[in-house]
Amino acid sequence: MMRSNEEILLPTRDFLRQLIGQTKVKSTELKSVLRSRGVFTGSEQKEITGPILIKTGLSPFEYVDLRESYRTKEESPKSKTRTISWDSESSLLESLPEFIDYEKLLNDQFGVFGISSMSGFTVLKDNPDHIYMEFEIDRQDPVKNWGENSVTHSGRIEVRKNDDRKTLTLSLSHTAPETMDFGNKVSTALVKHFKSEGHIKQDEEVKVIRYADFKNESRVLFLNELTQKVSHSVLKFIDTKDIHFSPDHNLPNPPEDIAWMKDKIEEMKMKGQGLHSTFFVSDKSIHPFVQLFGVQCDYEFEGSGCSGTCRILFEFSGKSESIEGELTLNLSMLKMEGNEEGLSRAAVTKQIIESLERYKMEVYEKHRIK
To answer: Is 118 helix (H, G, I), strand (E, B) or coil?
Structure first.
């Protein structure tokens, strides 16, 4: 809310265009501004509503409302992993396209983003079947003080052949929506190229762990088993700290223990200790009536030359309203107690997340809808 004595320097022209182009400024918010003026458009797309606001400008109250809805703390690194079958004897290194137009993939119509650093694909540990690329994207952020309105976010794409040499694993790490979007576009372009060259069959699809891949009850079992057993990994489960869920309002006659939630609770986040042993998790009769979006747990870890504790959030991309929500792993806290090899925090984070991949896919295949 704007105070009566608050001085507002309103963005105009290019500054306003950059503000509207931010990924965290949603189309619905721009639509709301226009409708409050009595202006209705045939489309809610930002490409339609944005130019109208750029031409007419924002009032101080409109700008403050938009600014406050945009301001959020910067996100910690998050990881997503996908797989697809490989059908070639060629190495990944020699199968790469000669040229990728990264600027075209970025495709920023509002002039908000720019690629500030790009490593290109490089072999990892002299293995031509294990490649990676790191990149940084600058975001012009007019919500911050002008002159200090550039923020840099990093991302990483890693592609490797599994031990059977018949499957590719594509790992994406991102710190902001724009690095996630760019990583998705690059990995999609890679898969398209591999298909055109015959390294991947045309009818093969990238396997992604999505919210809609489970029934309500199997989603609970999947997340419980994945987070607590953590087999094959460097982790040892300690406790469940947070659970994010909602009653399924489409199902009638929920059990008595959760009947009070129906038509009253949209979403709920439980925080505490020992949540995995509560009735909500242990009572299987409740599972069909609950939509579980995410679980956050504490672990001990002991890997190659390092040990300590960490906290990991397993969630379906935060898209509780969307069946397209993709499972994302976010290592939100890391405390190292032993580090004989002098590994960086990024290297330790990578080691922890990678150690979960094998078991994640095993549990996915066990509980997904067949």
So the answer is: strand
Asked whether 154 and 179 are in contact (CB, 8 A), the reply is yes
Radius of gyration of the chain, Cα coordinates, nearest whole angstrom: 23
Token pair for 100: 């990728």
Please compute the mean of the pLDDT values over residues 132-155 and round it to a whole number: 74
At 99, the amino acid letter reads F
Average pLDDT over residues 72-81: 68
Can you tell me the distance from the alpha carbon of 200 to that of 367, in angstroms, rounded to the nearest whole number? 27
CA dist 231 and 236 (Å) reads: 9
List, in sequence order, every residue forming a beta bridge with 244; answer none if it has no partner.
Answer: 269, 294
Kindly report the number of other CB atoms within 10 A of residue 356's CB atom: 23
pLDDT of residue 149: 64
pLDDT at 321: 46
Within a 10 A sphere around the Cβ of 260, how many other Cβ atoms? 11
What CA–CA distance (Å, rounded) separates 161 from 130? 7
- Which of 332, 337, 329, 312 is closest to 238 using CA atoms? 312
Q: Are 280 and 243 in contact (CB under 8 A)?
A: yes
Residue 234 predicted with pLDDT over 70: yes
Q: Rounded to whole angstroms, how far apart are CA atoms 199 and 166?
A: 10
Supply the pLDDT for residue 153: 85
CA 303 distance to own-chain centroid: 25
Reading the block at residue 30, the tokens are 């721009």
What pLDDT, in 10s, does the model give residues 35-67? Answer: 888 888 878 788 888 888 888 888 887 877 776
Please answer whether residues 137 and 182 qualify as being in contact, where contact means their C-beta atoms are separated by less than 8 angstroms.
yes
